[in-house]
User: Fold this.
Amino acid sequence: MGLTTDQLKSGLDAIAGREPAIARALEIAGYPEPRIRPTGYATLLRTIVGQQVSVAAAASVWSRLEALLGEGLPPETLLAADFEALRGCGLSRQKQGYARSLCELVAAGALDFDALPRDDEEAIAQLVQIKGIGRWSAEIYLLFAEGRADIWPAGDLAVQAGLHRILGLEARPDEKQTRALAERWRPHRGAAAIFTWHCYNNPAL
Assistant:
């Protein structure tokens, strides 16, 4: 599970103790709500389904896939489904390729969501083996589903925009600058990431 309310609070309090701008932003915006997703294969499949479509469209595709494949959408069942049946659920050719890549890795035992490496970079390296899953999607999975405390998705535009606002920077930092700015917040960068999403469109900051 993702970072709990208490973990978010303790992590942000630790950062605020050494970063006055975070302390000020906490006073204005308050603590963020937890962002928690289930661990496991289905969460990554749902990420693939949701790419480049609206939340409503993704939910519609997901419900049709559940009707076709059954509860839990077993990887073996998806692999056995034919192209037209999956297209009828709303999965494009490209997304079918991504979904099959995920299912093949899981079915072959090459990707075990119950035993991802404890080292964050090693875990990211395993997850990006899946076609269609880049570094950002892997980081979001590790942060929201596994609650890894030091995940820092520096390439996320909202994280960059949140830092711009919180730290009062002249311009939105790029990925390299965003990574460097948060180095001193280890090992609580996951809480900081969730806080930047909480703050990035707050007009009071």
Q: What stands out?
A: Residues 106 and 112 are 7 Å apart (CA to CA).
